[in-house]
Amino acid sequence: MHSILFAIEKPDIGISKAHTSWSDLLHDIELFVRNKPDIQVLSETVLLIALHGQLHNFVTLAQLCAVAETSYKTIFFAEDPELFYYTPSAEE
Predict the structure, then answer these.
(1) How many CA atoms lie within 13 A of 71 on its CB side?
(2) Number of domains into which the chain is organized
């Protein structure tokens, strides 16, 4: 297996406890992924994890979500996924 797309489901943050838990989760993820070249942050809630034969980054992110009682979805890639990046020009 080459990599995992890890998508965190944003909870209804109208509830005070969920808001605090969500904020803490985002902060914990930000700290965890810092200086980790194997994790590419695609958005606030979507990460691409290169595995290189190891699952430790995936397991840690899954544990962070479990502690925050937040759901996530994964897509496993056997080969390097081809990502398309679109950036709108200033003229549009």
Answers:
(1) 5
(2) 1
Please give the residue range of the domain that contains residue 61.
3-77
Higher pLDDT, 29 or 83: 29
Is the pLDDT confidence value at 92 over 60? no
From the list 6, 3, 14, 11, the residue with the least C-alpha distance to 69 is 11
- pLDDT per position as a tens digit, 55-77: 999 999 999 999 988 999 999 99
* CATH number of the structural domain spanning residue 27: 3.30.70
Q: In angstroms, rounded to a whole number, what is the distance separating the alpha carbons of residues 68 and 75?
A: 21
Question: Contact 56/63 with Cβ under 8 angstroms?
Answer: no
